[in-house]
Design brief:
Number of helices: 4
Order of helices and strands: HHEEEEEEEHHEEEE
Strand content: 25-35%
Number of strands: 11
Radius of gyration: 16 Å
Length: 208
DNA sequence: ACGAGGATGCTCT
DNA sequence: GAGCATCCTCGTG
């Protein structure tokens, strides 16, 4: 299992978000079962996007980037983890995209567990069905034990990394508006494996 | 099956 | 004080 290098992430964000479908997220921990999840749902966020957590840091008219502010890490090295707390209780995992100096990130929204069911069930005691282990962005971070300790780490090497699984792709990709946002709703930047049972059950933001 | 409401903490106004 | 890239529980059909 060979991890993706920084070059893989140093590309247009939408392309990375689509390409990550069908690849795997891997977490290795000493003395514990390895956790592997096949990515079935992602979202893209770019620097000119009002829903982006670094929106306004880059001024397109002058080409200048602020030195600090919320989400400044999203302009850093491609392949870096951007982990943040949402609604005061759930950690969400993003991977930084685009070349350094350009902002962008892909949110990992859902995976299908391939290895590590035991650990995931331990961490996700609320899950009644197997798909509830990882069919949402906050659920998968809990199942994989991902929190702010991973913020800023490189997702190009263990203990947490991405890798290829299947070649060629053996699924149909579907698209929708992103979920849970109020700005940038018109951008069709949620990507998922059509009909897959581990896709999150939430409703896209452009629907009633 | 589905919808309403609450939990809970950090950032920006 | 509001808003937030969410999840869970408890109602009603």
């Amino acid at each position: 299992m060979t991890s993706f290098s920084a070059d893989y992430f140093a590309r247009p964000t939408v392309a990375v978000a689509q390409d990550l479908l069908g690849t795997v997220l891997v977490h290795t921990e000493a003395g514990r079962e390895r956790q592997v999840g096949r990515i079935v749902e992602t979202e893209a966020y770019t620097q000119d996007d009002p829903a982006f957590h670094g929106w306004g840091l880059y001024d397109e008219a002058t080409g200048t980037l602020q030195q600090e502010g919320r989400g400044i890490e999203l302009f850093g090295a491609p392949g870096t983890a951007y982990v943040y707390l949402i609604y005061g209780m759930h950690w969400l995992l993003n991977v930084v995209t685009e070349p350094e100096g350009t902002g962008g990130a892909v949110l990992i929204r859902a995976v299908e567990p391939l290895e590590g069911d035991g650990v995931m069930h331990q961490r996700r005691s609320a899950a009644r069905r197997r798909q509830d282990l990882t069919n949402g962005p906050g659920k998968l971070t809990e199942a994989f034990g991902i929190d702010d300790a991973f913020h800023g780490t490189m997702l190009t090497e263990p203990p947490l990394f991405f890798a290829a699984l299947e070649e060629p792709r053996s699924f149909d990709m579907a698209t929708s508006s992103r979920i849970g946002i109020s700005k940038g709703v018109e951008r069709p930047w949620r990507f998922f494996i059509d009909g897959h049972p581990y896709v999150s059950p939430a409703t896209p933001s452009d629907q009633a």
